[in-house]
Amino acid sequence: MLGTGRPFLVEIQNARRFPSDVLIKDMEMKINSLEKKYVRVKNLKFLGNQGWELMREGEAEKQKQYAAFVWISRPLNSDDERTLSSLKDMQIMQNTPIRVLHRRSPLEREKTIHWMKIERVAGSSQYFLLHLCTQAGTYIKEFVHGDLGRTHPSVGSILGCRAEILQLDVTDVKMDCFLV
């Protein structure tokens, strides 16, 4: 997870009293001052039982932004950039990906790609960074390569060539319900 991070909940079971604002600030400082900087937190606050409700409500509306390093089987041209960048709130259909079928139900899901933008990689005509914002739960790897036709449309089908994802990073999670 890059960027500004993601919302999370910590449940304190069998608490005898509510934590004070001072205690919460102290917890935040202790986490952020740990020697190994694997996790950082900000804006830690007490929500009570409403936290779980907010998290569940936000799931449906949550948007995630990604940076994907992509290879295509032919040189990228300016028409390709315009095509992908012009697609806004595009609906895609995704069957459960082959890579997760062993643990997920075989369903067809409709998901939304809110926007895409291409960033060219200097010195290469077949590699690029694809920045995109999608509805939570979208299988990004499969959206790029198509998963043998199980995701349509895909970046590969839109560009009319083979597309492979080499690296994927989450750059932002938008969950408006936590802006309270």
TrEMBL record:
Bilayer-crossing regions: none
Gene Ontology terms, MF aspect: RNA binding; tRNA pseudouridine(55) synthase activity
Root EC class: isomerase
Pus10-like C-terminal domain mapped to chain residues: 1-173
Keyword Isomerase: yes
Entries under InterPro entries matching the protein: PsdUridine_synth_cat_dom_sf (IPR020103), Pus10-like (IPR039894), Pus10-like_C (IPR048741)
Alphabetical keyword list: Isomerase, tRNA processing
GO annotation (BP), single: tRNA pseudouridine synthesis
Keyword Isomerase found: yes
Coiled coil: none
Signal peptide: none
EC number: 5.4.99.25
Gene3D superfamilies: 3.30.70.2510, 3.30.70.3190
Record-stated family: Belongs to the pseudouridine synthase Pus10 family.
Protein's recorded name: tRNA pseudouridine(55) synthase
Natural source organism: Handroanthus impetiginosus
